[in-house]
Specification:
heterodimer, A: mainly beta, Elongation Factor Tu (Ef-tu), domain 3, seven-stranded antiparallel β-sheet, seven-stranded mixed β-sheet, 3 helices, 16 strands, B: alpha/beta, eight-stranded parallel β-barrel, four-stranded antiparallel β-sheet, about 20% strand, binds flavin-adenine dinucleotide, binds flavin mononucleotide, binds FE2/S2 (inorganic) cluster
Chain lengths: ~250, ~300
Amino acid sequence: MPYEYLKSNIILNCKVSEDIFEMKVEFKSNTEPGQFFMLRKNDSPTFLSRPLSVYYADKETISFLYQVKGKGTQLFSLMNPGEKIDIMGPLGNSFSTAFCGKKTAVISGGIGIAPMVYLAQELLKRDNSVDFYCGFKGMPYCTDILDKKIKVFVSSQEGVAGHHGLITEIFNPSAYENVMTCGPVPMMKIVANMCKEKNIPCQVSMEQHMACGMGACLVCTCETEHGMKRVCKDGPVFDGKELIMND
Amino acid sequence: MTETKICGINFKNPVIAASGTFGFGREFSQAYDLSKLGGICTKGLTFNPRQGNKGIRCCETASGMINSVGLQNPGIQSFLDNDLAFMSSLNTVIIANLSGSSIQEYVQGAELLNSSNVDMIELNISCPNVKEGGMNFGIKTQSAAQVLGQVRKAVSKPLIVKLSPNAEDIVDMAVTCEKNGADGISLVNTFKAMAIDIYKRKPIFKNITAGLSGPCIKPIALRMVYEVSKAVNIPVIGMGGISCWQDAVEFIMAGACAVQIGTMNFIKPDICLDIINGIETFMIKNNFKSISEMKSII
Ligand SMILES: Cc1cc2nc3c(=O)[nH]c(=O)nc-3n(C[C@H](O)[C@H](O)[C@H](O)COP(=O)(O)OP(=O)(O)OC[C@H]3O[C@@H](n4cnc5c(N)ncnc54)[C@H](O)[C@@H]3O)c2cc1C
Ligand SMILES: Cc1cc2nc3c(=O)[nH]c(=O)nc-3n(C[C@H](O)[C@H](O)[C@H](O)COP(=O)(O)O)c2cc1C
Ligand code: FES
């Protein structure tokens, strides 16, 4: 589906947790889990647009879940309903969910949970059984909005909820037919390697600094066994077996 | 009214998409009708395919960005086989941006492109992001003259040389290129720059330095276009940080017969259309009947 570029009306922009916000904008499109949009405040002192994944979408709106990291996301968090934001998308490929009746595991780290909530719901719609593993540094967020049929496993490095430690410590790929992950690269690398050993398909959503967001400038590449690939166009979702993850 | 002729080639208007910021046009063709453009420069092409640089390739700055792509491209033969037919169907002027890491590679590439149906060749002697070859042909006039001399022999199509703002003396460089057979000059490419990750205590880029572009370079690029235009008798295409039609008019008044738009395509995908329309409205309101009437007014 081709992307669109327009000024969208912000419907909602509220705090979800300490530095986590949800923004909902008017935008008519069909998006798939894993796809993202490029967002920019007009006349912003920051220059480039910021990529954010689709957290939730219906026919009329798109929602984003974002963490305030630097200047750009800070500016987003200060915007009010009724203001306009420049938005381009949907961009990139998506998680492949064209299977049903499978045992699937969805694994997120930190704000990597953003695209995974939407993904888990879509997997459920296709009659897959879904176990949701989400790791956090401190307090968890957004773990309570999932369908009750989804089993949720939580970890916190600070030990404030669920397993005290890393999410990968309580995940065993052998129990699953499909695995999908999004989060910090070191976490995704562990998950991808675990799956590779057991020969279980693993889809990995990568992150990279972006400029055009549509595949033209080649600044967002990651290394794969088939050469350098554009995260914004050939990804963000890649086969865990073909990715070469450094760091 | 906005049409302009450069090295014998007719452009509908003086607005060209800059090399490396527009791919081969495919992605932007979803945003608008590319036949509205004066022209498109391809991503920098080399005879042999290149993987480009590893590590982080992009860093935001105040009013701009630094890039370290390192000329990732599929190689000229692949471009001719897979991309040129699409570009030719766009009904705009197609300019192939030619690069290389040795004189021999430049010449091999030039020969292939010269026998294709691209309209013009833009010789890129100014990419700051490639290390191989140990030479940056765009810094010293002597090495620029060498590579241009050899490429000129292989090219009968219009040949434009794209200058680096990092050249020792940009005016000397332009004059040298004119003497050695350039049909036109385009400038500027990106400025050599750097950024540091203060927490990791390391440069952001593996190559340490990379190329700065965007609105932050505009005033310097404009000055260079002005100085070069005064010194040569061949057409000059101006670029560097152009973000609106007013900027484009400034470059034309400073001596450019056309402009290229690079980084701003990332900020607003249809920025070139705004600039084309803005130039036309300005000309009507201010009674300019042609681009050449407005060119070099300063
Ligand atoms: C495909 C994709 C989907 C994403 N989805 C989400 C999401 O749903 N929610 C969320 O909170 N974050 C998401 N991110 C990360 C988010 O884009 C960055 O946190 C954000 O760009 C940081 O901007 P800043 O101005 O706050 O930070 P700064 O550090 O000030 O940003 C400076 C520059 O670096 C870039 N940058 C910094 N960190 C990242 C990063 N991790 N990834 C990409 N670019 C970065 C910025 O875009 C900007 O160009 C996603 C990234 C990608 C690539
Ligand atoms: C991501 C990126 C890639 C580029 N790649 C090339 C290239 O392959 N060949 C080239 O001649 N110039 C390349 N350039 C330079 C631009 O064509 C242009 O000269 C420069 O960015 C200044 O213009 P701007 O400020 O409008 O972007 C690139 C610039 C950027 C930002
Ligand atoms: S951000 Fe430009 S190619 Fe991916």
